[in-house]
Amino acid sequence: MGGVARPAHYDAAVELDPRVQASSWAHRIDGLPATATSLLAQLPELLDAAEGRATSILSVSPIDPRAVLRVADLAGRAGRAGPEILGAVRKGSAPGVVAALARVALEGGPTYVKLGQLIASTQGLVPSWVAEPFAGARDAVPPAPVRAVERTLRRSGVLEHVASWDREPLASASVAQVHRARLRDGREVVLKVRRPGIVSTVAADAAYLLPLLRLAETDDRVRVANLSGTVELMIRLFAQEADLRLEAANVVELALAFERAGAALQVPAPIPGLVTKRVMALEFVPGPSAADVETALTYGHAAEDLVQAAVVGTLHTTLVDGVFHGDLHLGNVLINEGGLALIDFGIVGRLEPGQRAALLQLLQAAFAEDRSAVLAALRAFGALPPDADVATLEAALPPPPTMEERMAMLQPEGRGMLRDRMTTLVRTLAASGFRVPPELTLFAKNLVYLSDAADRYAPDLSWIETVGDLVLTTVGSLADPSPTPPPDHLTP
Prior knowledge:
By secondary structure, the protein is of the alpha+beta class. It is built from 22 helices and eleven strands. The chain has two domains: 1-138 and 198-262, no CATH class; 286-492, no CATH class. It is globular and about 65 Å long.
């Protein structure tokens, strides 16, 4: 499965997955229906392999030679940050541990950059003194050496299909980087290339970093930051990102889900025959990042339509299909003549049917401010063990809103209230020592992102009403086995 399986991808006799057969997105490119069918069939195996990869990384001993060498290298590159971390651990200084880790994130290589990016993206889910020091990690990833990238391209078998490629990457992230290229048949594509040696580096870092953080968390002030839980989540997500075949399957699954939801979202397709574990070719999608609001809106789209497309594409697919983009942020959203385009599908959240039902229950309970129902939904989701101290946890939840606050939640300026309720739940669980399921964390992050996008693009949009309508519609569509489109006012 590691090489370019071109013959299978181009076999016209392949029996197509029914979802692919019904998809106009999949039939845009010659050979894509067979490729999409193949990737969907491989998805369970690829997910199992990613879980095995995460388990292997988390089981590396601190005295493993790779870890010892990595600590020595890190000590040389990060200067006094190592002693700072140990000193902060001994003192039980939570801000000290975080500040030292943030400095390491800028010097310590891909693992720490990835950790820094993940922590920075959880602004609102963790205290500000935890998230803010890591903000600089978003732009702290220098590209891999060109020769190493070229060697990876050649070994993958993809390079022989490439007429030319830009040595300067379009984007450089902690796990992979992206280069523009032109195939021999003239198509403009991007090549996503995994960083050489990244799996071994992450395993070595995890071997000493997790024990250190768990030691620090014997102090309640450090435990509230849930840093060890964040590191473990990062490693499990990394284990999925490390296989670009899994990302290609994510692309297919989400593109089909968006299409069924009627969400106007562009998704770049993987190029048939050019998907391997370490290299993937994708359609090139033009357009500025949604972070550049002024430029993005020059295409003439109604800002409210863009936000509603994002809401439909995220919440409908989450609640109906149980799959959602797990790394939503402005850098992964482009805007062009066609509207919104999503990129970077390395992290995808998936919910089992029981979790989808529990999440719906949780959202409804959050709207109704029913604490008992909130806790029942959290238990059904898997966020609470059977012996959880429910009374103590319920007391830690925010009080129900006043009548004035309830009325304010229906206005555009109240859009942050639902987000704040959901993120408070996640923070309260973590602070109380419960294991927060990664899927719940990723979903809460999406609510934070969508609310922030509404602040930027559609300040007059009633966020609570938009989300509430979609939740109610979803409840109705799940109760009725016949397919039901989203409400007209939510369909761009």
